[in-house]
Specification:
By secondary structure, the chain is mainly alpha-helical. The protein is built from 12 helices and 4 strands. It folds into 2 domains: 103 residues, no CATH class; 152 residues, no CATH class.
Length: 256
């Protein structure tokens, strides 16, 4: 029997999973792979192969010397481009498809509404369900890219981790859901980054503001910040932050 071509909806679901699953779990035995395969009436091997085909398009893996399969189709490339050209629209569309195919757990539905509070500001209108879903996608994609570890301190307790925006949510609507605009930070480091007390230089090394440097009498601050000054941040295995995003943060937000 001839192999059935992948539909656009199926490719969008595969790309959604690709963004939120560590590279080492692109195999037929991964529960997430099995669940998607069942939902779209394909074999786990077929889904795992599609994830590896998508990996072959990812420059982050090529930079690390990790190669996916070489059979990426034109349809694969088209969906890849669509996501990267409009993260907000495609993340919302893919999350809606996950709901339609019963791939969202009750825990996941609760997460959409609890996490969205991190992204609202005083001048923002309440988020729509679609926007909340897109932000849930952003959080999961960023945290998975950093393997659920703070890129400064290596804290790995999910309850203490934030998918932090480099370019602020309120000022850069076009980058709100772009995983390359995300950092996995502990809540303490996220607050310091948001307030311009810390930033990262051109080589992704932690830089402290003068006010934070002067806070040497507090043991918590010494441990959480001074010990990491000048150290390179933990690099994600995909969606490496764009250098121009950090440049904006150093120029417009960092207190110096």
């Amino acid at each position: 029997m001839a192999r059935r071509s992948w539909t656009r909806d199926e490719l969008i679901l595969a790309m959604n999973l690709y963004c939120q699953l560590p590279f080492g779990r692109f195999h037929k035995g991964a529960p997430e792979v099995i669940r998607l395969a069942s939902a779209i009436d394909r074999t786990p091997s077929s889904v795992a192969m599609k994830l590896s085909n998508l990996a072959s398009l990812d420059p982050a893996h090529l930079d690390r010397g990790v190669k996916g399969l070489s059979g990426a189709s034109q349809a694969d490339r088209q969906v890849w481009r669509e996501f990267h050209d409009d993260w907000e629209r495609l993340s919302s569309e893919s999350e809606a498809l996950r709901e339609r195919y019963n791939l969202v757990s009750e825990e996941g539905r609760e997460e959409v509404f609890s996490d969205a509070g991190e992204f609202t500001g005083a001048t923002d209108r309440p988020l729509t369900v679609a926007a909340r879903c897109a932000q849930g996608f952003f959080r999961r994609s960023v945290l998975a890219s950093y393997e659920n570890r703070c890129c400064v301190s290596e804290v790995n307790l999910p309850q203490l981790l934030i998918a932090s925006h480099i370019l602020p949510w309120s000022k850069f609507p076009g980058q709100r859901v772009d995983p390359r605009n995300g950092l996995c930070l502990s809540r303490l480091h996220d607050a310091a980054f948001d307030q311009g007390l810390i930033t990262f230089d051109e080589d992704f090394r932690l830089v402290l503001s003068s006010s934070l440097k002067e806070a040497t009498t507090n043991s918590v601050l010494r441990t959480a910040f001074h010990g990491y000054e000048g150290h390179a941040m933990r690099q994600p295995h995909r969606f490496r932050p764009r250098s121009q995003y950090f440049e904006w943060h150093r120029t417009e937000c960092f207190q110096g």
